[in-house]
Structures are given as structure tokens and as C-alpha cells.
């Protein structure tokens, strides 16, 4: 499978190429030089880190509600499509001696009502060294997430590389780690199944939700990709990069706009395969060589049966009332300026980005006090909390020595 080479939409483009000077230099210096750095004298120390997830949801419905009565106490969180990619030329010690690259993906992890579903229950992982010839694949259909909902399907593959074809003076470079995850229809939070529409809540202060006993939140098919690697430069040295991308799927609240709720989706999009959000960090080790480019799509919001959507550009943050008693705060996060660091000497680049986040609050009328909030459900789609690249000054193999005895180790 070829990763990250999809045609990227030009609807929304932003390029960050300014340096962040002293602050970034402090971050670079913090890494230091491990005692066994002589293993990579030919290349110099370099490090690439990327993590993220396709979707997450957090529930917080407290058991005791003043003036309303007892309702089920439902608290917890679910994460779907966790991805982690790490490369370190000095070794990833936590994963065993001689391991330099790692690609990890998890289908789902959950912690609800004290029931912990660990991230490694449905997961794929590949490390190098040793390097495997083929990617590791994973997949499952019709997965029931305890107390949270149902996931139609999730699948993907992970690959970790560490070899002389990719790394070396004069090499064109290539991929060190890559992970793809495809996520199918995801239905989350059925208030009826959770008991939130039963008992006191259902009989005395009923909520007239358009979704009825269906899922409070659902998403369509989506995908998430990450890739790390190195690339050749004109002088024979190498720079390093990390790319992240994904595809925002339609997000339906309370059954979606067609059923009286709300829908958030791509503006006039018919393509369900290509990524529509993308970012790339590069570090060459030369002045001005730390760069960050990214593209985010324009989304639209429909409420009820309205035919005209409201544009949601990165930076959008508004609260709307979907139906009496239910409000939604919608935030479409841009990459955070304060978390984007580009070293002036080109040795370090880092970024952190949010994605689409929606927080639903559910409230009911109560005697005397008026409206009382029962709880909230929050969902986030496509988030990359940490993405960074670090290379030595001049780049990898800046000394031009192809035959150094202390060059990168590719075999045990």
C-alpha cells in the first residue's frame, strides 16, 4: 500500500514557515546525547515522534441531579483508532535493545463505569530492528464497544523500516514507519440503552429527542494515516519528515439533520476515499529548513431540515441549540500557533492540532430552579496532539562519510 500520496484538496491551505527561535532551540537542547550515541556517528542523532487518534468520546452523566432525582451514573471515555509512530536513532529502549522504529495502531480503547478496555486489546504493532518484509494488518467487523455503542468495522496496517536502502549518505531516503487505519460507521451513546430515558427521567421530565432510542452521536466512514521518513538532499545528506492525514466523515447528532438533529460534513464532497486533511513537518538541519505545511477542509453544519449549511472554517467555535434541552458546542480547531515550533537552524520542527470537537449538553426543566443539566457527551474527530522531527545540524550524514565504522546499525 502506498501511504500519504493522495491528491490533497486546496479548499483550505495554510503554510507555517516562520521560525520560533530561542524557544525551539531550548526544546532541541533538552534531548541531549545518550551514552550510546556513538552507534550513529555517521548520521548524527535524529528523532521523529507522531501520535493521534481518529475519534474519541467522553461521557459525564452524574447520578444525582438536584430537583430531578437519581439517574444512572455514566462516566468514561472511548478512543477509536489510536496511532503512534516513533523513530529514534539512539534506540527505543522501552521496546527492546536494538529497536529504532515503531508503528502502533489500536482499534479501540475504553474505560466506562470502571470497566477498562485496554488499548492493546485490539491492536497492531511493528518494530524494527528486526525488520519484517511485509506490513502487519489488523481488522474487525461489528465491534460492540461496552456501554458506548457499535463500530461497523475498523482495519488497517502498520510497517516499520530500518535499512541501508533508506538511510545513508547519498540515499534518496524513504519511509521509516507508516500506519493506516480505516474506520467504518460508528454509533455512540444510546440514551435508552444507558438507562438515561428510564425511571424518573423518562416518566417525570421526558426529553423529546428526535433520535428516540437511537444513537446520540454517529459518524460515517473515515480514515487516519501517519508516515515518518527521511529524504535525500543535494549534498548527499538527509532531512527527516513526518506526515499526518485523514478524512473527516459526516458527524450526526441526534439522528442528523434529516431527523431533526444536526449534521456536520464536508462542503459539497462526494469523494469518500481520499484524505481531506493533511500536514507535513520537515527538518533539514540547515537554516530555514524547518517547515510546516498543512491543509484543512471547509465543513458545513446543517440543523433540522434546513437546506443551506453554515460554513465551518478552522477556528470556528460556537454553541447552538439543536432541540429544547440539548445544546452543542462545535469547535473546529486549527493547528495551535503556540504549539508550532520551527527552529531557525532547521534542526527541529513540531506541531500540535485539534480537529473537530463537539460537546453536547443535555438539560431538563426542574421545579423552582428552572433548567438542570443532566450531563454531557463530547466527541472529537482527527486529533494529532504531538508531531515532531529533530535532526542534527547539517542533516543526517552531513559529514559525507559513507563508510564510518560507527554508522547506523541495521543488523543485530
Write the layout of secondary structure elements.
Layout: E1 13-16, H1 21-31, E2 47-61, E3 64-65, E4 69-70, E5 74-88, E6 101-112, E7 115-117, E8 123-128, E9 136-145, E10 149-160, E11 173-183, E12 186-190, H2 199-204, E13 215-219, E14 222-232, E15 238-247, E16 251-253, E17 262-266, E18 277-283, E19 291-295, E20 299-303, E21 310-312, E22 316-323, E23 326-332, E24 341-342, E25 348-353, E26 356-366, E27 370-390
Antiparallel strand pairs: 1-19, 2-5, 2-27, 3-4, 5-6, 6-7, 6-8, 9-10, 10-11, 10-12, 11-14, 12-13, 13-16, 14-15, 15-18, 16-17, 17-20, 18-19, 20-21, 22-23, 23-26, 24-25, 25-27, 26-27
What's this entry about, in short?
The protein is 4% helix and 50% strand. It is mainly β and 412 residues long.
Radius of gyration (CA) equals 24 Å
Secondary structure class reads mainly beta
Q: Look at the structure and give the mean pLDDT.
A: 78
Number of domains: 1
List the secondary-structure elements in sequence, H or E. Answer: EHEEEEEEEEEEEHEEEEEEEEEEEEEEE
For the sheet with most strands, the description reads: 14 strands, antiparallel
Q: What level of helicity do the residues show?
A: under 10%
Distance between the termini: 28 Å
Contiguous runs where pLDDT drops below 50 for at least 5 residues: 1-41, 199-206
Please report which band the strand proportion falls in: under 5%, 5-15%, 15-25%, 25-35%, 35-45% or over 45%.
Answer: over 45%
Question: What coarse outline follows from CA principal-axis ratios?
Answer: elongated
Number of strand segments: 27
Per DSSP, the total helix count is: 2
Amino acid at each position: 500500500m502506498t501511504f500519504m500520496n493522495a491528491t490533497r484538496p486546496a479548499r483550505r491551505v495554510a503554510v507555517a514557515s516562520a521560525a520560533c527561535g530561542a524557544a525551539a532551540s531550548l526544546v532541541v537542547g533538552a534531548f541531549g546525547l545518550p551514552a550510546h550515541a556513538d552507534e550513529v556517528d555517521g548520521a548524527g542523532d535524529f528523532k521523529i515522534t507522531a501520535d493521534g487518534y481518529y475519534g474519541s468520546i467522553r461521557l459525564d452523566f452524574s447520578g444525582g441531579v438536584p430537583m430531578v432525582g437519581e439517574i444512572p451514573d455514566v462516566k468514561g471515555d472511548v478512543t477509536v483508532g489510536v496511532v503512534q509512530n516513533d523513530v529514534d536513532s539512539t534506540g527505543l529502549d522501552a521496546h527492546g535493545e536494538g529497536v529504532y522504529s515503531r508503528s502502533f495502531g489500536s482499534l479501540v480503547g475504553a474505560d466506562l463505569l470502571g470497566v477498562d478496555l485496554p488499548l492493546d486489546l485490539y491492536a497492531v504493532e511493528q518494530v524494527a530492528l528486526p525488520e519484517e518484509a511485509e506490513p502487519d494488518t489488523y481488522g474487525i467487523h461489528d465491534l460492540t464497544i461496552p456501554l458506548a455503542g457499535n463500530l461497523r468495522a475498523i482495519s488497517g496496517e502498520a510497517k516499520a523500516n530500518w535499512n541501508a536502502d533508506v538511510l545513508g549518505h547519498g540515499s534518496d531516503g524513504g519511509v521509516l514507519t507508516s500506519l493506516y487505519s480505516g474506520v467504518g460507521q460508528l454509533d455512540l451513546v444510546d440514551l435508552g440503552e444507558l438507562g438515561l430515558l428510564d425511571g424518573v427521567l423518562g416518566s417525570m421530565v421526558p426529553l423529546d429527542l428526535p433520535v428516540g432510542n437511537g444513537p446520540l452521536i454517529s459518524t460515517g466512514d473515515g480514515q487516519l494515516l501517519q508516515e515518518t521518513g527521511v529524504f535525500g538532499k543535494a549534498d548527499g545528506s538527509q532531512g527527516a519528515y513526518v506526515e499526518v492525514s485523514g478524512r473527516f466523515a459526516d458527524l450526526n447528532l441526534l439522528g442528523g439533520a434529516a431527523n431533526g438533529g444536526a449534521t456536520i460534513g464536508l462542503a459539497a464532497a462526494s469523494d469518500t476515499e481520499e484524505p481531506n486533511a493533511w500536514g507535513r513537518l520537515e527538518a533539514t538541519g540547515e537554516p530555514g529548513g524547518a517547515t510546516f505545511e498543512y491543509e484543512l477542509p471547509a465543513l458545513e453544519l446543517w440543523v433540522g431540515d434546513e437546506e443551506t449549511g453554515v460554513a465551518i472554517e478552522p477556528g470556528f467555535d460556537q454553541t447552538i441549540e439543536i432541540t429544547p434541552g440539548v445544546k452543542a458546542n462545535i469547535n473546529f480547531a486549527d493547528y495551535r500557533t503556540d504549539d508550532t515550533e520551527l527552529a531557525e537552524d532547521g534542526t527541529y520542527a513540531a506541531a500540535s492540532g485539534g480537529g473537530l470537537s463537539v460537546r453536547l449538553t443535555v438539560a431538563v426543566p426542574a421545579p423552582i430552579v428552572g433548567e438542570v443539566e443532566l450531563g454531557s457527551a463530547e466527541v472529537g474527530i482527527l486529533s494529532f496532539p504531538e508531531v515532531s522531527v529533530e535532526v542534527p545540524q547539517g542533516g543526517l550524514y552531513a559529514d559525507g562519510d559513507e563508510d564510518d565504522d560507527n554508522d547506523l546499525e541495521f543488523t543485530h
